[in-house]
Give the backbone structure.
Amino acid sequence: MTVLVIADVNRSSLATDSLAKTITAVKGLGEVHILIAGDDCEAAAAEASGLTGVANVLIAANPAYAHGMAEATAALVVSLSSGYSHICGASTAFCKSVLPRVAALLDVMVISDVISVIDGSTFERPIYAGNAIQTVVAAGNAPKVFTVRTAGFAPVQAGGAASLQAVSGATGDALSVWVEDKVATSDRPELTSANIVVSGGRGLGSEANFALVEGLADKMGAAVGASRAAVDSGFAPNDLQVGQTGKIVAPQLYIAVGISGAIQHLAGMRDSKVIVAINSDPDAPIFQVADYGLVANLFEAIPELESKL
Amino acid sequence: MKILVPVKRVADFNVKVRVKQDGSGVDLANVKMSMNPFDEIAVEEAVRLKESGWATEIVVVSIGVKKAQDTLRTALAMGADRAILIEAASDVHTDIEPLAVAKLLACVVREEQPGLVLTGKQAIDNDMNATGQMLAALLGWAQATFASRISIEGTNAKVTREVDGGLQIVNVNLPAIITADLRLNEPRYASLSNVMKAKSKELAIRTPADYGVDVTPRLAVVRTAEPQGRKPGLKVASVDELIMKLKSEGVL
């Protein structure tokens, strides 16, 4: 069996962490090939070829594939699909757009957000915001198309030496045009790959108070997250949202500050190794999943914690 | 311009569903059902596009059990003009897969010839996040997923998408499929008079056989289980105790 993993390439740089975790999830299935598609993607391909567990890196360099446009990328993947038993990628916005389109073109179901690969045709995935785990079997010889929720997998390390192979394939009809990326730049670690995440919720009360969370995060070298309630209240931008409708994270340490712990938030962080909840409400549901809970006034406890670290 | 809005009837987002003891699925008997929240956002956006004068007719379609009529009536009360129910299941526990749904919707699109299909980015029951992309594939149309802003510009739609790390703006040729993300809008509540008016709006009932589509699932769900629980935690009394505990865990 041979697995084709679609890599997420943003503005010529490889989303290495999610790719390395996806490889861990699927390497037991067979030989792993990586597809790098984009405009200027030699550096990304070179980086992918250095990941352990990769046999071959396919490079499809064509402006049609730049910016991860789903229509052209899906056409490419379908044109390269023959010979692959599995076609997959991390559950990023890019793969979630492309792979269902690929699956429909191949007349197979997509299996979204796989958290465990049991065997070549059996997969586990969460439903109902993670309140239930479903085991599904895709029988038959058709390729299995799926996305991998990477939070629970460790990344493979660098140190490999995969072969590089230029490929060309279909680009499909020109149906959409990229206009602009508005990317938040930050010196903090990326939310989904950070070792420590400090998240703030509605308990902080205002956008100005959200700076408390940012200050603590910077002291700890952590990424900043937010609950949906905090995002909806305008305290933090949406790309920081942790939860079922936002990012799924599983850091070594997750600190929830002023977050009540709605089901949809828990779905995004329940796989963290150690969860700390700091909240003034002793009955907040977040304490039911927290390893360590501190009932305290946030505006005293957070500065104290920051100063003592 | 006509807009087609596929909507799904799902367990209400406030309900914490329970897994059946025998592992055969989640228990939906006597559970409050509502329109999938992301589909509600799609309906709202369609209604706004009609209010702006761009859209002339909104057709909502649902695929599922007979009771999905309630969901369609909700959409009609929000401002959709007519509805189509494709009755594809008799048991609420039967979930029609996105691929089959997309095939049925492709048939509806060929009949109705909408200029735009607007739907939710994912259903909050199976969390597949696939129907819009699959429909776009089957029709050979452009797609814009995770939309947080839509503006129609001539024969294109300029769509702001919520992607990892920020926003991406794309221009898609119409007709296209756009899937709604959370921040696209805040759906309205239907007024009582609109709820009453919705009762007399047209609601056609069809079956998958009418379209010649086989809805047999491709994936076999062999088991549904509760997620692994976390072991009970510990309340600490002070910041100092918290720091000590985290140091002993090796995470600081």
User: Anything to note?
Assistant: The first helix of chain A runs from residue 16 to 26. Residues 66 and 135 of chain A are 35 Å apart (CA to CA). DSSP finds eight helices and 18 strands in chain A. Chain A touches chain B through 87 residues (CB under 8 Å).
